[in-house]
């Protein structure tokens, strides 16, 4: 067991120098010693905390990198899909444009053909109307000529015919009828 005498002995063991207890004013020496002590304490005591912080930071960074890679792959897939849709849309737009142009050409051709057919029918109708009007005009002129000729003939007969000539004409026709009946 130790008692107070042991302390005295141990104090006697350490020889005291002539200077005694004094402050070391050499800044470089004391700062290096203090810095060494502080660093040793920090490394010893803070090793677990620092390793945990670094491990957490490493996991966070790795998770962020994985998430970024996943998002990149997803975005690249969506970009490829969008490019494919864009290509299909371009092809479809070209098809629609070509169908539209051919449809316009077909409609234009049909419209021209229809207009030509309508024009031909109108021309035929016009010609038929002209022929009909010509025939009607000719018929009217014939009727007027016949009526005028008949009126002139009646006037001429009225002027030339008298009762005696009328009787002679009737007798002549009667004799002709008798001659026809007698020859049979």
Automatic annotation (TrEMBL):
It is found in: Membrane. GO terms for cellular component: proton-transporting ATP synthase complex. Pfam families: ATP-synt_B. F(1)F(0) ATP synthase produces ATP from ADP in the presence of a proton or sodium gradient. F-type ATPases consist of two structural domains, F(1) containing the extramembraneous catalytic core and F(0) containing the membrane proton channel, linked together by a central stalk and a peripheral stalk. During catalysis, ATP synthesis in the catalytic domain of F(1) is coupled via a rotary mechanism of the central stalk subunits to proton translocation. The lineage of its organism: Eukaryota, Viridiplantae, Streptophyta, Embryophyta, Tracheophyta. This is ATP synthase CF0 B subunit. Belongs to the ATPase B chain family. Keywords: ATP synthesis, CF(0), Hydrogen ion transport, Ion transport, Membrane, Plastid, Transmembrane, Transmembrane helix, Transport. GO terms for molecular function: proton transmembrane transporter activity. It is a single-pass membrane protein. The keyword Magnesium does not apply. One of its GO terms (biological process) is proton motive force-driven ATP synthesis. The chain crosses the membrane at residues 32-50. It comes from Selaginella nipponica. InterPro entries: ATP_synth_b/b'su_bac/chlpt.
């Amino acid at each position: 067991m130790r008692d107070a005498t042991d302390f005295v002995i141990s104090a006697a063991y350490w020889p005291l120098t002539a200077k005694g207890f004094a402050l070391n004013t050499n800044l470089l020496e004391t700062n290096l010693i203090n810095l060494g002590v502080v660093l040793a304490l920090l490394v010893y005591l803070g090793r677990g905390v620092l390793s945990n912080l670094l491990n957490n930071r490493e996991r966070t960074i790795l998770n962020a990198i994985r998430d970024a890679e996943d998002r990149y792959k997803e975005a690249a897939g969506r970009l490829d899909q969008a490019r494919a849709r864009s290509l299909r849309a371009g092809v479809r737009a070209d098809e629609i444009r070509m169908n539209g142009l051919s449809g316009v050409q077909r409609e234009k051709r049909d419209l021209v053909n229809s207009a030509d057919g309508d024009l031909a029918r109108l021309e035929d109708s016009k010609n038929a109307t002209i022929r009909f009007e010509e025939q009607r005009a000719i018929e009217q002129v014939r009727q007027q000529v016949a009526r005028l000729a008949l009126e002139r003939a009646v006037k001429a007969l009225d002027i030339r015919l008298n009762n005696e000539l009328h009787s002679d004409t009737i007798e002549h026709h009667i004799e002709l009828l008798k001659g026809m009946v007698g020859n049979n």
